[in-house]
Amino acid sequence: MKKLVLVHWHPGEATLFRRELETLGWQVFCVDRSEKTRLKPIREFQPRLFLISLSRLPSHGQAFARAVWSTAWARNIPILFFDGSTETVTEYKRLFPDAYFCRRENIAVAIQKILEE
Questions:
Q1: Percent of the chain having pLDDT more than 70?
Q2: Which of 24, 29, 41, 104 is deepest in the core (most CB within 10 A)?
Q3: How many domains, in total, are found in the chain?
Q4: Calpha distance 111→12 (Å, rounded)
Q5: CATH number, domain at 109?
Q6: Predicted pLDDT of residue 61
């Protein structure tokens, strides 16, 4: 099964977005700002992709990305950041040069391209 981790700042919006992703055939593990990043359950989930919102609280997404990329098991799992201001995206491209970036409306296409690489 296709699995991804969704990191989103707002639990309610994350739930709605999770449902959209599930209709596209994804099994989704959600991480929101209300919980500490616990990597063990994420590792056990075995995601193929990390999908991180930059729309608000981008520092939460940054902390999560740094945490997963600092582990041997997650270092090669692609990270796709979506949305965020021009300034935030520019900064994150510098901080995470191997990550991918897109707008929310282009996520399905971006995921497909990333996983085909």
A1: 95
A2: 29
A3: 1
A4: 23
A5: 3.40.50.2300
A6: 83
